[in-house]
Design brief:
heterodimer; A: Rossmann fold; 3-stranded antiparallel sheet; 11 helices; 10 strands; B: alpha/beta; Rossmann fold; 7-stranded parallel sheet; two-stranded antiparallel sheet; 6 helices; 9 strands; globular
């Protein structure tokens, strides 16, 4: 489907009455593509069909999950992971500190962090919390399922870290699915909450939000990053996508740790 | 040609590096219309392409960040592992959405978005390549009254991409790389 801008605005306005379906702050061109994909997935021809579908709570949750974009692969941008391993992880020394992954869509970032802190022998003093407003997305992450078709790509990224070669040992495999081992899974907690309410009590020593804000309009992006900044402990690290830019209101309050890998410190 | 353009978008895949390199080294140094290149490239290699093309380029080459504004006198290259879109306000937007035609960046996306945003002010060029990505994007530019040039399949290292476009619509011109460069240099700035 090819939506007009006015059709997108009408859809956004109609569905925002539901929890977790407020897309008012998202970029219009992203919404055109994403709604087209959702309509295509569910074979929806008219917006009234879409509205009818949304009356079902479980379908709403599923569609809210489908609106999120996956992280594409584990260890995406190997140079970023190498930098974090060599320059950031061992600075996160406080016992019980938390690495937070807001709006985590498929678990790829969570499993990458989990493997990395395990290999650095610091898993006992760090916890990984990811969050996504969609319960179905959280269930997928909680199951530890990883797309088997992505395995070679994930593995080739991992090999570029040039450290260990234990990748196979982190998965239980069958014909169609690879599942993260139970002990690795137990190091990650996923909460079905939006970014503004996901983390309350933990001491957040690092937030990784890579490529999540690409789809936001300007105002939502400002609010998003300012919220992350407020939740981050003093001295904590913020990582964004290598082609993203922090809004000036947040950038001016942070120290640049790596301009290339887009890592900042509060 | 007297027609004035606000944006030139170029798609290419297998065999296109040498054509793009020639374009950038033979384009006049005062060429002011922003050029955007969407080339298929390795996902995990972030550096090298810009550096390689910059050696002889007459234009400043940039891999844009999300929300960066298009500026005259610059040539832009889609970053690896991101889709690159042109927005109505003359900015870039990046995306990690699903691959399209097995590609990220997908040429179709860059070309189509340019056509929608700049309409008849868009000049689209499709070069040599080994899959059909870019054909639909060129047709979208054509449908929005933009000007379209497809590299002559006879001069293409791999002719799959230009032939896919030619099967979909009739472009304004089918040209060799040398003639494309000559046309670009004659465009009013």
């Amino acid at each position: 489907m090819n939506f007009s801008i006015s059709e997108i605005r009408e859809i956004v306005e109609t569905i925002q009455v539901y929890d977790n379906m407020d897309y008012g702050g998202y970029g219009i061109s992203f919404l055109k593509r994403r709604f087209a994909k959702v309509f295509d997935t569910h074979n929806i021809r008219k917006t009234v069909q879409f509205y009818e579908l949304l009356k079902d709570e479980s379908m709403r949750d599923r569609i809210a999950g489908e609106m999120f974009v996956d992280s594409t692969e584990m260890f995406r941008d190997p140079a970023f992971w190498r930098f974090v391993r060599d320059n950031v992880l061992h600075q996160l020394t406080g016992a019980g500190d938390t690495i937070w992954l807001p709006n985590e869509a498929g678990g790829e970032e969570a499993w990458s962090f989990s493997i990395l802190i395990h290999e650095q022998n610091i898993a006992d003093r760090l916890s990984i919390v990811c969050s996504n407003p969609s319960t179905s997305r959280c269930n997928v992450i909680g199951s530890g399922a990883v797309d088997a078709n992505q395995f070679e790509l994930n593995y080739s990224n991992y090999k570029r870290l040039e450290d260990k070669d234990d990748f196979e040992t982190y998965f239980v495999k069958d014909a169609h699915t690879h599942t993260v081992t139970e002990w690795l899974r137990s190091s990650v907690c996923c909460r079905a909450l939006d970014y503004a309410s996901a983390i309350a009590d933990e001491k957040i020593c690092m937030i990784a939000s890579r490529n999540q804000a690409l789809y936001f309009g300007h105002d939502l992006m400002e609010h998003y990053y300012n919220t992350l900044y407020d939740r981050l402990s003093a001295g904590g690290y913020l990582a964004i996508g290598v082609k993203e830019q922090l809004p000036a209101s947040v950038a001016e309050k942070m120290t640049v740790v790596s301009e290339t890998e887009k890592v900042y410190r509060k | 040609m007297d027609r004035k353009f606000s944006l030139i978008v170029v798609g290419g895949s297998a065999g296109s590096f040498s054509v793009v390199s020639k374009m950038l080294s033979q384009i006049r140094a005062d060429f002011s219309i922003p050029m955007v290149f969407c080339l298929h490239r390795l996902k995990h290699v972030r550096s090298g392409l810009i550096e390689g093309l910059s050696i002889k380029s007459n234009l400043r080459l940039i891999e844009p960040h999300d929300r960066e504004k298009l500026q005259p006198n610059n040539a832009y290259i889609a970053p690896s592992n991101y889709h690159l879109f042109i927005e109505y306000d003359g900015t870039f937007s990046l995306s990690t959405e699903e691959v399209h035609n097995h590609s990220r960046p997908a040429i179709d996306y860059t070309l189509s978005s340019a056509g929608y945003a700049f309409r008849e002010k868009t000049l689209g060029i499709l070069l040599t390549g080994a899959n059909r990505d870019g054909a639909q994007g060129m047709k979208d530019i054509h449908d929005k009254k933009g000007y379209t040039i497809v590299q002559d399949p006879a001069t293409s290292d791999v002719d799959t991409m230009p032939k896919a476009a030619l099967r979909l619509f009739t472009p304004d011109r089918i040209m060799s790389p040398a003639d494309i460069i000559q046309l670009l240099n004659a465009l009013p700035q």
